[in-house]
């Protein structure tokens, strides 16, 4: 019976023990949960990276970063001794040596402000105000530098110049003088009530407008993804310009952007291909393209007959065009193109030979043009095609590619064909860039006055020395024949009055 009672009591004791352990585990788990929830609410701030002692000029910037960490982490509420220890630890091991060299009294080593002042003295020392101001006054906006970076840099430089109450005015002046946009600089100088805030606002606004203008022009130069409206007549060779109705409704009629005052439109100074100023090409309602009509060597033609495409950059130049009015000084020759006599114009500026589509009675099968041709106005010309033909002049034959251009007014003989047919002779000396030398004797005979006398300039000329000029003379150590030769040479200059003796009183 005793054994039986013992066996019954043992499981009960074991059960009570397990229950007690479970309670302890639950309590511990609950405490862990509370701690984890608190941990989730706690924000940990990382201290700044160690200070680079090889760059003492970065001390002020690094210390500002440490100050932010000190405030954010609550370190500023701790005893000063802990703040000093944290500062030295974050700086790195070299901080200990610098602090030792400062020879601060024992009682000052736990003062945060005193320790910080010791590091200031070590890294900054006594600042040269004249040097800092000279750097500030010579700082200009660099090419490609955004205005915000320029403003930040001169603002930091101003802090080291001890301008005190004049700080804002001098930063304003540096902006006016130092910005790249000289037009804006002139406008700012005309504002008698200009403040630093107004100067910054106008500079940022001008930079923003330039960026927007560039982006708008980039958009214009790309093909539109919208479907163009189709003209009712199918005989037109050129597609209509994209309709601007959708763009203009509720927006600016000149640039296509949101409505704004006329004087602030980014297109106000833009010259369109139609020749008018004040609107972008995409907003142009005119179908006429006005050329520059610059008179060049060769042929010139109205650019209104030219295709307006601008997508080809590696185009071949066809020469200029017929000048409108006046007497033509052009050269013409009769040549044979595939045994058909043609009166062609010599165009040394044209890189290819071209003819109108109606100049030959029989034109062979045309191939697709292998070049993009541009006229003098840099407009791309419409080319029906090309073929290879035999050109003949004075019994001399050459093969040449001929380009058929329907809008061309007369046949053009390009520079390659001109040289091949010996229509223009170029002297080798000029072609290679070497001009033949002329005998010196001939020059002397033709211009004898250039080689006679001393060539003295009439009149007397006064030479003034600067006040702080220091005299300098070099007396070589000459002896014997060399010294005698020098004396004779000097005397030879005194006789013709090239020089005269000077006797100092």
- Shape field: flat
The structure class reads alpha/beta
Cα radius of gyration in angstroms = 44 Å
Q: Runs with pLDDT <50, length 5+?
A: 1-23, 25-40, 223-249, 288-314, 320-327, 429-436
Helix proportion range? 25-40%
How many helices does DSSP assign? 15
CATH superfamily of one domain: Acid Proteases
**Main sheet strand line-up:** 6-9-8-4-5-10
Largest beta-sheet details? 6 strands, mixed
The CATH topology label of one domain is Cathepsin D, subunit A, domain 1
Q: What's the CATH first level of one domain? A: Mainly Beta
Q: How many strand elements?
A: 10
What distance separates the N and C termini?
151 Å
Integer average pLDDT = 74
Strand content: 5-15%
Spell the H/E element sequence.
Answer: HHHHHHHHHHHEEEEEEEEEEHHHH
The CATH architecture designation of one domain is Beta Barrel
Key traits:
505 residues, alpha/beta, Non-ribosomal Peptide Synthetase Peptidyl Carrier Protein, Chain A, Cathepsin D, subunit A, domain 1, 6-stranded mixed sheet, two-stranded parallel sheet, 10 strands
How do the strands and helices of this protein lay out in sequence?
Elements: H1 2-41, H2 59-72, H3 80-91, H4 94-101, H5 112-123, H6 129-137, H7 147-159, H8 167-178, H9 182-189, H10 196-221, H11 245-248, E1 298-300, E2 316-317, E3 320-321, E4 332-337, E5 340-346, E6 353-355, E7 373-374, E8 385-393, E9 396-404, E10 412-413, H12 415-420, H13 428-431, H14 440-446, H15 481-494
Parallel strand pairs: 1-3, 2-7, 5-10, 6-9
Antiparallel strand pairs: 4-5, 4-8, 8-9
GO molecular function, one term: zinc ion binding
Protein name: CCHC-type domain-containing protein
Region (Disordered): 216-238
């Amino acid at each position: 019976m005793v054994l039986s009672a013992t066996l019954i009591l043992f499981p009960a004791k074991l059960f009570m023990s397990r229950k007690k352990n479970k309670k302890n585990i639950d309590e511990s788990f609950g405490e862990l949960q509370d701690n984890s929830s608190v941990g989730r609410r706690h924000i940990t701030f990382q201290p700044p990276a160690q200070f680079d002692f090889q760059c003492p000029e970065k001390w002020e910037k690094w210390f500002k970063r440490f100050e932010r960490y000190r405030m954010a982490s609550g370190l500023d509420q701790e005893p000063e001794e802990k703040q000093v220890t944290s500062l030295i630890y974050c700086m790195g091991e070299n901080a200990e040596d610098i602090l030792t060299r400062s020879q601060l009294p024992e009682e000052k080593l736990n003062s945060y402000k005193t320790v910080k002042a010791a590091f200031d003295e070590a890294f900054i020392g006594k600042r040269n105000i004249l040097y800092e101001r000279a750097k500030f006054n010579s700082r200009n906006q660099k090419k490609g530098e955004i205005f915000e970076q320029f403003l930040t840099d001169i603002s930091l430089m101003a802090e080291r110049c001890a301008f005190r109450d004049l700080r804002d005015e001098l930063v304003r002046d540096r902006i006016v003088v130092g910005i790249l946009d000289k037009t804006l600089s002139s406008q700012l100088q005309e504002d008698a009530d200009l403040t630093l805030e107004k100067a910054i606002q106008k500079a940022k606004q001008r930079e923003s407008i330039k960026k927007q203008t560039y982006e708008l022009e980039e958009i214009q130069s790309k093909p539109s993804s919208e479907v163009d409206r189709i003209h009712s007549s199918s005989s037109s060779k050129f597609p209509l310009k994209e309709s601007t109705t959708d763009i203009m409704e509720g927006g600016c009629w000149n640039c296509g952007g949101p409505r704004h005052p006329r004087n602030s439109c980014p297109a106000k100074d833009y010259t369109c291909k139609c020749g008018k100023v004040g609107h972008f090409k995409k907003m142009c309602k005119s179908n006429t393209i006005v050329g520059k009509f610059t008179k060049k060597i060769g042929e010139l033609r109205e650019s209104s007959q030219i295709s307006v495409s601008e997508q080809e950059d590696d185009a071949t130049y066809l020469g200029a065009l017929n000048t409108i009015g006046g007497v033509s000084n052009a050269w013409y020759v009769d040549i044979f193109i595939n045994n058909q006599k043609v009166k062609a114009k010599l165009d040394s500026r044209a890189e290819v030979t071209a003819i109108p589509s109606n100049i030959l009675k029989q034109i062979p099968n045309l191939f697709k043009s292998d070049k993009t041709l541009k006229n003098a106005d840099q407009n791309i010309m419409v080319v029906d095609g090309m073929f290879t033909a035999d050109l003949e002049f004075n019994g001399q034959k050459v093969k040449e590619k001929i380009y058929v251009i329907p809008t061309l007014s007369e046949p053009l003989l390009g520079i390659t064909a001109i040289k091949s047919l010996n229509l223009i002779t170029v002297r080798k000396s000029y072609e290679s860039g070497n001009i033949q030398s002329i005998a010196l004797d001939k020059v002397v005979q033709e211009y004898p006055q250039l080689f006679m006398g001393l060539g003295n300039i009439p009149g007397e000329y006064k030479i003034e020395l600067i006040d702080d000029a220091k005299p300098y003379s070099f007396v070589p150590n000459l002896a014997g024949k060399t010294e005698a030769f020098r004396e004779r040479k000097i005397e030879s200059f005194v006789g013709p009055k090239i020089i005269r003796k000077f006797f100092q009183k």
